[in-house]
Amino acid sequence: MNFLYPGFLFALLAVSIPVIIHLFNFRKFKRVYFSNVAFLKEVKEQHSSREKLKNLMILAARMLAVTFLVLAFARPFLVSSTHHNQSNGNVVSIYLDNSYSMDAVNKEGSLLDEAKRRAKEIVKNYQLNDKFQLLTNDFEGKHQRLLNADEFVQAIDEVKISAASRNLQQVINRQQAVFTGASNRFSYIISDFQKNFAGEATIKKDQQTQLTLLKLTANDLPNIAVDSVWFLSPVHQAGASEKIVVRLRNFGNEDAKNVPLKLNINGEQKAIGSVNVAAHADAIDTLSYSGLSLGWQKATLSIKDFPLTFDDELYFSFKVSVHQEVLSINGSGTAKYVEALFNADPFFKLTSVAENGINYTSFSNYSLIVLNGINEPSTGLAQALKTYLENGGTAVILPSTYGNQSVYSSFLNAINLPSVSALSTEATKVTQLELKHPLFKGVFETLPKDIDLPVVNRFFNYADHNQHLKEPLLLLPAGKTFLARYKVLGGQAFLFSSGLLEDEGNLSRHPLLVPLMYKIAFESAKDLPLCYTIAKDNVITLPAVKLAANQSLKIVGDGFDVIPDVSHQNGNTLLFIADQIKKSGFYQVKQSDATLAVVAFNDDRSESNMVYDDESTLESKFGQQKVLFIDAKKQNVSSAIAEKNSGSELWKLCLILSLIFIAVEILLIRFFKPQMHK
Question: Which of 314, 510, 570, 660 is 20 to 30 A removed from 415 (C-alpha atoms)?
Fold first, then answer.
């Protein structure tokens, strides 16, 4: 039997070697072992500390989340600097702009519809017992009383676009009239704030009233308006050819090409045209027409322009008269010249009287009065002529150079004209015509180089002191005046230096006299205004109307019939219409069944300009006065009003913070894990 079996020896060797090695390193092993035990203990302590920190952070996040959630339900706020004592109650005035510009649109619909919704939002921010005033451009009497919330909302739904237009100061003044007592005062202006609305002057408000401007913003829209119209001649004759000038205005950002223009008179188309209008510019066109009948004419100028159409028509009226009344007051031997001149045209109805047979009370019947070579003008004539000029009359003065100079000077001074300084008897010739003056427009087709002008043998020199009232028309050598126009006393006077007698010069036989006197006569024609503006022109002026006892005048239109207040001033009859006319169109002024005049009313063209004031511009209008501003396009209206009235509410902030801390807690639990050092 072999003890020393090789496998056994190999196994014994394999077991013995590690034991020998272990025994050899026992001391070293012992030292390492106890070192590792200390390390594990330290790691365990560190792990426990980080677990504790994690739990504390989770607890803090949870407590803060609960705290801010509780605060959110408590609805905390910061008190506003404009905080009011709610026990006094609130009176709230809300102006709703319902002018034509509020018919523009944005993504919310029309601006007027948005304004109505904003007004209802404002009401919801006040208490059940608060009182409200609704104000619009119409300034109706029913809008001067206070309503409860339900009545106010119902009144808002009834508001419609109106032709009336107000400025911001008028609106604020109207709102102030409703505030009384110790109630808290709140004013709101809901508008698009066109440039013309705020105006240029500083706006004043009551310091006790909290004023808020709520701005609505419309989309950019093109707009072309028929702005104005005028005639080249103030006189209208039946069957004659006439020209009318029209101005179109482009308020848009793009050029408008081939804008169709149409003129209708008494329902009949008289002329058409086509106009190009550059962006933000005006264009003027002239239309020719003929075939007018006698009497009052109802005319309409119209264009086609979308989407804003309220300013696409302009109504105007004028009268075609049978004749024009002229009065000539003649001195000795001078009547034949003026009679021959005006009797040559049947349109003029001449009344010729001697200087000692004057009816002063009839002066208001004439559009032109000619003083033709009067020798001794009286003080009575001076006083009557002064009144005539004050009422807008026109006078032509052809003096008699044989008359008393001092008497003439006193007469001329009485009607604010220059006195006579000297008489010149040296023959001379008119050297210059002021061709640029409107009076000579259309008189000459072509002007010859050596034009033959009147010769004067005797003429007055005048002592002019008021040069700013003088418009020279015909000049003598050395700058002396032969004919000048003076704007005096509300009327106009044409003062010659000489008369029509043959020994005074050749003016009576000169071909210049006829067109010159006709042009003066046409200029003297008294026409009523072509048209009026709704809500701005509240007085209609007519020539003097004689009314019998208990007789009144009426203004009649389409579904409209009103008796205006009447006043007689300075030879005219004034009709006061206040704000009674609200619709554009034609209206007849009637005395019993007779039509005295036809007047035309148009919408305010200031609404055509779609340019708006921004916040800084509006605030500058109030100077140092405090005004609150809300832009409905950028701000939540209800929140802005609540903040301004009660203060800054913090519940939303608290809710957000609560959610943030809940999220922090979740992140700590899921991702924050303590790590041991290697």
Answer: 510
Q: How much is the pLDDT for 84?
A: 57
Question: Cα-atom radius of gyration of the chain, to the nearest Å?
Answer: 46
**Sheet-wide strand order for 628-631:** 131-135, 90-96, 184-191, 209-215, 628-631
State residue 17 phi and psi, 5-degree precision.
-60, -50
Q: What is the pLDDT of residue 611?
A: 87
Residue 648 has pLDDT above 70, yes or no: no
Q: Compute the distance between CA of residue 483 and CA of residue 507 in angstroms, rounded to an integer.
A: 12
> What is the C-alpha to C-alpha distance for residues 186 and 214, in angstroms, rounded to an integer?
13
E-strand ranges in 82-122 read 90-96, 105-106, 109-110
CB 376 within 8 A of CB 332: no
| Kind of pairing between the strands at 628-631 and 209-215 | parallel
Which residues are paired to 287 by β-bridges? 244
- Please tell me the distance from the alpha carbon of residue 169 to that of residue 618, in angstroms, as a whole number: 12
Q: Which of 644, 519, 618, 599 is nearest to 194 (CA)?
A: 618
Question: Taking residues 586-608, what's their average pLDDT?
Answer: 92
**195 pLDDT tier (thresholds 50, 70, 90):** confident
Q: Which two tokens stand for residue 615?
A: 């916040």
Residue pointed to by tokens 């086609």: 304
Q: Which amino acid is it at 79?
A: V
User: Which residues have C-beta within 8 Å of that of residue 298, sequence separation ≥ 6?
Assistant: 265, 266, 267, 315, 317, 586, 598, 600
Copy the structure tokens of residue 248. 């179109």
Question: What confidence category does residue 24 fall into, taking pLDDT thresholds of 50, 70 and 90?
Answer: very low
- The rounded distance, in Å, linking the Cα atoms of 29 and 36 is 11
pLDDT at 22 over 60: no
580 with 587: CB under 8 angstroms? Answer: no
CB 565 within 8 A of CB 553: no
- What value, to the nearest 5°, has the Cα angle with vertex 612 and ends 610 and 618? 160
Distance CA 411, CA 389 (A): 14
Detail the DSSP E strand segments found in 157-241: 184-191, 209-215, 224-231
- What ranges make up the beta strands (E) of 434-558? 455-456, 459-463, 470-475, 481-488, 491-496, 532-533, 539-543, 553-557
- Cα distance between residue 604 and residue 266, in whole Å: 23
How many C-beta neighbours within 10 Å does residue 66 have? Answer: 13
Per-residue pLDDT averaged across 222-245, rounded? 89
d(CA 593, CA 201): 46
Q: CB–CB of 46/39 below 8 Å?
A: no
CA–CA dist 374, 651 (Å, integer): 94
Strand order in the sheet with 242-250: 224-231, 242-250, 282-289
Question: pLDDT by residue (tens digit) across 305-318?
Answer: 887 888 999 999 99
Cα–Cα nearest to 600, from 313, 360, 283: 313
- CA–CA separation, 263 and 273 (whole Å): 9
Task: Identify the DSSP state of 88.
Answer: G
Predicted TM-score (pTM) of the model is: 0.72
Q: What is the pLDDT of residues 114-170, one digit of tens each?
A: 999 999 999 998 888 899 999 999 888 888 889 999 999 999 999 999 888 889 999
Residue 601 pLDDT > 70, yes or no?
A: yes
Band (pLDDT 50/70/90 cuts) for residue 605 is confident
